[in-house]
Amino acid sequence: MTSVLNVDTIADKAGTGPVALTKQSASKAWINIDMINSVTLDSFNSSGITDVSTGVFQDHLSSSLVNADYAVTSSAMDPTKTANGGTNRTADGTPSSASQFVMRASAYDNTANDVPAAAGVAHGDLA
After folding, report:
1. In the chain, how long is the greatest CA-to-CA distance?
2. Are 105 and 117 in contact (CB under 8 A)?
3. β-pair partners for 123
4. How far is CA 59 from CA 2, 10, 14, in A?
5. CA geometry: angle at 123 spanning 93 and 23, to 5°?
6. C-alpha to C-alpha distance for 72 and 95, rounded to whole angstroms
7. Where are the domains of the chain?
8. Residue 47 is inside which H or E element, if any?
9. Which of 13, 24, 61, 89 has a CA between 20 and 30 Å from the CA of residue 111?
């Protein structure tokens, strides 16, 4: 038998907000930043960024994770470098504490670069 569930909103028990994902495997934070202008373009569970040095930014989490042993995935691209849509950069991310992670963007020769499109995603358990 096939069932269909159609809803407009799923709310918390009080009916005042969204359902919190606390133990599921969904990302617990993500951010999209413009490193050149030091601005956050969009984010979830981020209270702000810090420009550490060329090509290196810290994302400060609004809600901390349970420890600093979570996974971070990062990406970076410079869409201004070619007429065909951009040049990929190498990117890495690492937790620096339960409440922040670091993202780094660099050219393929490992030279750190600020890029206009960098993103990071944190996967772990909320505290």
Report:
1. 58
2. no
3. 71
4. 44, 29, 31
5. 165
6. 7
7. 29-123
8. strand 46-53
9. 61
